[in-house]
Write a structure and sequence with these properties.
Layout lengths: L7 E4 L2 E2 L2 E2 L2 E6 L4 E6 L8 E5 L2 E5 L11 E6 L4 E6 L8 E5 L2 E5 L2 E2 L2 E2 L3 E5 L6 H4 L5 E3 L6 E19 L4 E16 L6 E8 L4 E8 L2
Antiparallel strand pairs: 1-4, 2-3, 4-5, 6-7, 7-8, 8-9, 10-11, 11-14, 12-13, 15-16, 16-17, 16-18, 18-19
Amino acid sequence: MLPLSAPSFFAGGYTGTNPTSRVDIYDNSTGLWTTANLSVARRNLSATTVGTKVFFAGGVDINNNPSSVVNIYDNSTGLWTTANLAVARWDLSATAVGSKAFFAGGRDGTIFNPVVDIYDNISTGINELNKNEEITIFPNPANNHFTVSLGSTNKKVEVTIADNTGKVFYNTIATETQHIEVITQDFGAGIYIVQIQTADFIATKKTSEEK
């Protein structure tokens, strides 16, 4: 958590009828205001802090689409960086425990989403959120099967697949592999959340099954 002398941030929201990218920053030690901008204008975003970093995650953009963007401000350097949630969504919950920030749930269109994104400020930093970029699922949409490509060989990986209610349809643990084949002939048509967990990261992807 940032100390009481650290800045206070007021980010996003509405100006008139449109989302804004504006960030108003109040310096508690000097009593002065400055401004910055989110990389994407949005409303209904969530915020939390870990160490010297402030996170502004998700939200709804100017086209009324859910956003996956995470803007990160490091108070020790004064620099902004960006990352992405596994699933674009808004009204998610954000909190921090120890060195980790958690971004949980929220709405993905008209659907309530069970995904939890985890950022570890010590062990993996920004890579934990961006690990999703290395992982692909194909074909997507699927029809009776799909492949999870991990991008690199992992000594041990656990894959869990659940629907939007949280009901688990598939779970497996594999070792020394880059690809996992999933048979989905017993899955109903719909959207599924794929969680991939190793000793170093937790990543989530979304896929759909067609019948």
